[in-house]
Amino acid sequence: MQIDVGVSLKPYNTFGLPALAGRLVRIRSDADVRQVVDHPELGRAPKFILGGGSNVILTRDMPELVLKVEVAGMRLHSQSDSATIVEAGAGVSWHALVAWTLAQGWPGLENLALIPGSVGAAPVQNIGAYGLELQDRFDSADAVDLVTGRSVTLDAAACHFAYRDSVFKHSLAGKSLITRVRLRLPRPWRPVLGYLDLERRMAETGNSHPDAQTIFDWVCAIRRAKLPDPALIGNVGSFFKNPIVSAEQCRDITGRDPHVVHYPLPDGSFKLAAGWLIDACGWKGKTVGSAGVYDKQALVLVNRGGAIGSEVQTLARAIVESVYGRFGIRLETEPVIV
Ligand SMILES: Cc1cc2nc3c(=O)[nH]c(=O)nc-3n(C[C@H](O)[C@H](O)[C@H](O)COP(=O)(O)OP(=O)(O)OC[C@H]3O[C@@H](n4cnc5c(N)ncnc54)[C@H](O)[C@@H]3O)c2cc1C
After folding, report:
1. What is the dihedral of CA 264, 268, 273, 276, to 10 degrees?
2. Cα–Cα distance between 5 and 123 in angstroms, integer?
């Protein structure tokens, strides 16, 4: 096992925040995790699991042992009349998996194209976009317990998926390292087209029966137009979750401000557009030090060059307070603040 010492994490987080890992070990298999767990000293050390760093805000150097997940490999696991099940290593790029499944003729993940990060982190916040969430395609995940070194397989029920949430953000946070994920792609394939941006594309192009490749291309084009490319401007995508409120709360808020953007959910609650709430408080384009609110989309905080984690935190807190002050809604952050 190779232990790297004093590793800069700046290239390993998409916000481009400076932080040093005291010690970093690259994890390429379950056996690598067990070696760490069985190590007389590393076994007891506090640990931090790092995937592609596209959903973390690093506000300090890391005294924890950083486990950088690099488990590789994609394969067909099994196929039946009702589904194709594919398996990928936790270190595989999520978008590479989406593109690969499509190229193999196994559609089903196209709405989740171009989400940065690793396959292993996808279940952690139950990634979602354009009308689809990971839980809609999840079969199971293999994980290794960071205390006992035991490998376990978790099905969807064990993962407790919810909106941008799962057991890996709660009782298993930092305790269980996901090494492989299996996804169930239903057969026959049915497009997911209910999302407004996709409906607009269908109307614009006159194509009301797009195939999976077309949906993939549309999603990539929409995302490229809306979100800053982390390779050019540091960011972690949406910085806040869209708040979910009861019908009564929604009536109260829209009664006071009829323009508040809100969507009904199947269970009778409503999702409010966090970006709209932030924009309404005048935050678009504002900065704290070198951390700023993206001028095209208020839900995204960006690195204007040389930002440090504490500036991002200060900006995020100020936004939360101002939205709370005006709308009485406390925004929750989507990325993990370390
Ligand atoms: C431009 C941009 C757009 C984005 N768009 C979306 C979007 O549309 N929808 C969406 O849901 N998200 C989006 N995100 C957020 C991000 O891409 C996802 O949350 C992604 O799944 C994070 O993957 P990662 O490998 O970078 O995780 P990291 O940032 O490395 O880690 C995130 C969390 O997961 C834990 N973790 C990582 N790997 C593992 C593992 N193998 N086992 C256990 N725990 C682990 C970490 O400890 C940390 O707590 C976007 C981000 C960016 C930069």
Report:
1. 80
2. 29
Question: Which distant-in-sequence residues (6+ apart) come within 8 Å of 71 by Cβ?
Answer: 27, 28, 29, 89, 90, 91, 92, 120, 179, 180
- In 3-state terms, what secondary structure has residue 335? coil
* Distance of alpha carbon 141 from alpha carbon 89, whole angstroms: 10
The answer to whether 90 and 74 are in contact (CB under 8 A) is no
Q: Which two tokens stand for residue 229?
A: 């490319």
275, 301, 280, 220 alpha-carbon torsion, rounded to 10°: -40
Dist CA 70 CA 36 (whole Å): 15
Estimate to the nearest angstrom the gap between the alpha carbon of 53 and the chain centroid: 10
Pairing label, strands 270-272, 244-245: antiparallel
Residue given tokens 């070194």 in the structure block: 149
Candidate of 109, 124, 297 to mutate for ligand 1, largest count of ligand atoms within 8 Å of Cβ: 124
Distance 274 CA to ligand 1 centre (A): 19
| 164 counts as catalytic | yes
Q: For residue 311, which of 18, 9, 8 has the smallest C-alpha distance?
A: 18
Query: Which amino acid is present at 81?
Result: D
Compute the radius of gyration of the chain from its Cα atoms: 20
- Tens digit of pLDDT per residue, the chain (338 long)? 899 999 999 999 999 999 999 999 999 999 999 999 999 999 999 999 999 999 999 999 999 999 999 999 999 999 999 999 999 999 999 999 999 999 999 999 999 999 999 999 999 999 999 999 999 999 999 999 999 999 999 999 999 999 899 999 999 999 999 999 999 999 999 999 988 899 999 999 999 999 999 999 999 999 999 999 999 999 999 999 999 999 999 998 898 888 888 989 889 999 999 999 999 999 999 999 999 999 999 999 999 999 999 999 999 999 999 999 999 999 999 999 99
Write down the catalytic residue from 64, 110, 133, 334: 334
Q: Is the pTM of this model over 0.90?
A: yes
| 12 vs 52: CA distance, rounded Å | 7
For the Cβ of 298 lying below 6 angstroms from any atom of ligand 1, the answer is no
